[in-house]
Structure formats: C-alpha cells, structure tokens
Amino acid sequence: MKRFFSVLSLVIFMVSGISVMAAKKKAFTGQITFKISIEADNIPEQAKAMLPKTMIMYVGSDKTKSELFTQMGNQSSIEDLVAKSKIGLLDMMGQKYALHESYDDVLKEKEALPGLELEFTDETKEIAGFVCKKVVAKKKDDGSVFSTAWVAEELEVHENINFSNTIFDGVKGLMLQFDIEAGNGMFLTFTAFEIEQKKIKDSVFEVPEGYKATTMEELESTFGQ
C-alpha cells in the first residue's frame, strides 16, 4: 500500500500540470483521454495491474481537471490557472481527501528534481490528429535526458496551463505525449488518443461533497508512509 500510494501520488502531481498548447486559433476547451504505458522490470505484475491505465483531462478557459482511475480508488487534480493553485482529490478505500496547494507549494515540489533545462526542438510527429513538436528536459549537470514531451501548437489555451507541472512548467501548450520516471526503474508514458472539443461545465472543477481537507503530512500518516 505504501509503495502504491507513493507511485500514484507522483503520477498525479506530475501529471496534474499536463497542458493544452497555444496557437493562433480559436480557444480550446474540451476533454482529452490519454492511455498510460508502463515499463517496469522490478515491479510485480499484480502491482502493475493496480496502476492507472488511462487519464482523462478536462480543459476549461481558466481551469483544468485531470482524473486517474485505479482498482483501489481514484485520484484527481483541479487547477486554477489564474490563481496558480491546485486541489488534489483522493478517493481511496472509502476515504476522501482534498489537498490544497499554492504555487509556492508547487515550487517546493520542484526542489526534489535535479536541475533541468528545456530544449525546444523542430522535430515533429502527429498525435491524435495534431502535429506536435518535441520538447526535451535535460539534466544540467550532464546533459542526459530526464523527460520528453510532444506539444501541440494548434490549440489555444491559458498561458499558465502548465504551472503545476514540475518538469515542464513554462511550456505554453498541451502535451499530447510525455514520459516520466516514477522511481525504482519505473517509466510511465502518457499518450493522447481522443480529443473532443466542447464546453466543460463549471461543476466539473468544483470539489464534490464528502471530501475532507487535509495536508500531505496527514496523507502520508494515513497511508502508512
């Protein structure tokens, strides 16, 4: 349980900043569905089965919401792109928690990462019908690749769309594919396969009833970390 919660938390809080990219077209609002591929040599198949296989992202004019679904529960992140704040929602084993974070909290999370610099390339590929450009996050100390993203440029969204993404903060666009290292030899790749442009109801970005406000320390204590 401790390992599962740790990996799931890392996924949602890194993924929570996933983006939709800026271009000179009509502002985009809608729903994006991602498949999640998992590479892990040292993780039992039973543990892999409990990890999320898909993620749904809702994009409003100034808010986003990302949802992950697993066998043990669901985890979401609601982000206010104007205030640069977010709310993590955990619904697991009958317990519901809401974790509020400011942009200062997000910056503290980035301190756990190695020093990174972003390389914006002209390399392109098509994902879910959109041409995307490659962005590479490299370690400053040795230049090795830490993470890679493919960013669409045809969808106009809020300039702070990626404020909470600890790796790609500052990238102004939707990442239709990206990978992260979750530790212990585990790598996750998120790839968009369905993009639906539509108006998202305001209620999607509200905290549902029944969630208890908590802190990260309380969550770690509750789940045995």
How is this structure best described in words?
- With 225 residues, the protein is of the alpha+beta class.
- The chain has one domain (2-222): outer membrane lipoprotein receptor (LolB), chain A (Clam).
- 16% of the residues lie in helices and 45% in strands.
- It is built from four helices and twelve strands, in the order αβαβββββαββββββα.
- It has a twelve-stranded mixed β-sheet.
- A hairpin with a 3-residue loop joins strand 3 (63-69) and strand 4 (73-80).
Q: Characteristics of this structure?
A:
single chain, 225 residues, alpha+beta, outer membrane lipoprotein receptor (LolB), chain A, 12-stranded mixed beta sheet, 45% strand, disordered N terminus
Mean pLDDT: 84
Computed structural class: alpha+beta
How many DSSP-defined strands? Answer: 12
Which stretches are low in confidence, meaning pLDDT under 50 for 5 or more residues running?
Answer: 1-5, 17-24
Output the number of helix runs. Answer: 4
CATH architecture: Clam
Please indicate the count of domains: 1
Question: Largest sheet at a glance?
Answer: 12 strands, mixed
Q: What's the alpha carbon Rg, rounded to whole Å?
A: 17 Å
**Going across the major beta sheet, what is the strand order?**
7-8-9-10-11-1-2-3-4-5-6-12
Outline of the structure:
This protein has 225 residues and is α+β, with helices and mostly antiparallel strands.
Secondary structure elements and pairings:
Blueprint lengths: L1 H14 L14 E11 L4 H6 L3 E6 L3 E7 L3 E8 L4 E8 L2 E7 L1 H8 L5 E12 L2 E10 L5 E8 L21 E10 L2 E12 L14 E3 L1 H7 L3
